[in-house]
Amino acid sequence: xADGLGDRPDPAAVLANWLAENLDEEAxxxxxxxxxxxxxxxxxxxxxxxxFLVDTVNVVALAGDVFDGARVVEAAERIRxxxxxxxxxxxxxxxxxxxxxxxxxxxxxPLRDDHAADAVLALxxxxxxxxxxxxxxxxxxxxxxxxxxxLLWNGLLPRGEDxxxxxxxxxxRDSVRRESALAQAVAxxxxxxxxxxxxxxxxxxxAAARYxxx
Length: 214
Prior knowledge:
mainly alpha; two-stranded parallel sheet; 10 helices; 2% strand; globular; Phosphohydrolase
């Protein structure tokens, strides 16, 4: 595995939590807007307080302190209930990035509150399933992976990169894609999402055609 997993749960089982969220990665890639650079967010991630990285951190309370919206708190509750201790720490790091905008200072481009839940879930259920979150602070490559995953699911394109470049680097860093069984699970999920998209488009076209003929 990408990170020595020792006696931790099988990451394939943890990744099932991520796939169960049924989020559409292709749709995310097509809807990105420019965000802060990877280096800027990585520098901020490196300042994650130790209080966010202790095993007793309460991510549900933390989410409630950072966000008024219920969706992020509900996501934190799912992470607390279904995830591993590593998932909880991953979520806490994501919540720190949002909280730091007031506690430390704004990013050059604000993070997107409307995609906050997905960004936190991605760190918790996808990245932290394979890479222990405390390692993000000490390992530059794994920190880059965490930041790129966070920005993607926050709907932001790293400043200074176009979509093709960002995607290429993201896929190169992605620990999931470096494990063949997990990569296949993600590919199968992407295929199912594509089929669902095509069915939805076909139904919409059929409904529009009926409406136009009424």
